[in-house]
């Protein structure tokens, strides 16, 4: 036994177990993806505020599907990251893609292909492109987390036939 002022006994500082102190790559990747997804959720909150502001400035009625998408996806995404809940991250990914991308895609279609672009439409176009980009990115990272947590099988695994 070593004294408090003397040398430390060999093997008690943990250096002899350094070969076992490796964390699996999926456990290293999960916190990184969660941090990115948390930042994207915060950006989605700002996009929601921007959507409401643009609607108030231009006297438009905000798209009910877009607002509903934010009301469903943001709380589901935030709580799924805290609890590692596959069901909630699945709800977040689906609602973020379906209720966030498609209404803005329809907005782009209406403004770009059904007539000319007025001066107040520029804000709506910027909003639509921003929201589509953020929601696509968030859906991608939600899919990656679902694969990591075991919610959906990854595409890199080969399908072997059973005999």
Number of DSSP strands? Answer: 0
Overall, the morphology is elongated
Average of pLDDT: 77
Strand % is: under 5%
- Tell me the distance between the termini: 59 Å
Total of helices: 4
- Uncertain segments are none
The value of Rg in angstroms is 24 Å
- Approximately how much helix is present in the residues? 55-70%
How many domain regions?
Answer: 1
Largest sheet: none
Please identify the structural class as seen in this structure.
mainly alpha
Order of helices and strands: HHHH
How would you summarize the topology of this molecule?
Layout: H1 25-57, H2 64-83, H3 86-113, H4 121-149
What does this structure look like?
By secondary structure, the chain is mainly alpha-helical. It has one domain. Helices cover 67% and strands 0% of the residues. The radius of gyration is 24 Å and the shape is elongated. The termini are far apart. InterPro entries: Jagunal. Belongs to the jagunal family.
Features:
163 residues; mainly alpha; 4 helices; 67% helix; 0% strand; elongated; membrane
State the gist of this model:
By secondary structure, this protein is mainly alpha-helical. The chain contains four helices and no strands.
């Amino acid at each position: 036994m070593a004294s408090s002022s003397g040398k430390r006994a060999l093997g008690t500082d943990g250096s002899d177990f350094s070969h076992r102190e490796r964390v699996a790559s999926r456990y290293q990747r999960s916190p990184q993806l969660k941090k990115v997804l948390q930042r994207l959720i915060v950006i989605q909150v700002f996009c929601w505020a921007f959507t409401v502001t643009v609607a108030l400035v231009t006297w438009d009625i905000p798209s009910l599907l877009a607002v509903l998408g934010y009301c469903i996806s943001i709380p589901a995404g935030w709580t799924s990251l805290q609890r590692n809940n596959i069901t909630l991250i699945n709800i977040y990914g689906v609602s973020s893609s379906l209720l966030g991308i498609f209404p803005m895609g329809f907005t782009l279609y209406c403004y770009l292909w059904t007539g000319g672009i007025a001066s107040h439409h520029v804000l709506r176009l910027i909003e639509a492109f921003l929201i589509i980009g953020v929601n696509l990115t968030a859906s991608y990272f939600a899919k990656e987390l679902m694969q990591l947590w075991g919610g959906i099988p990854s595409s890199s695994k080969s399908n072997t036939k059973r005999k």
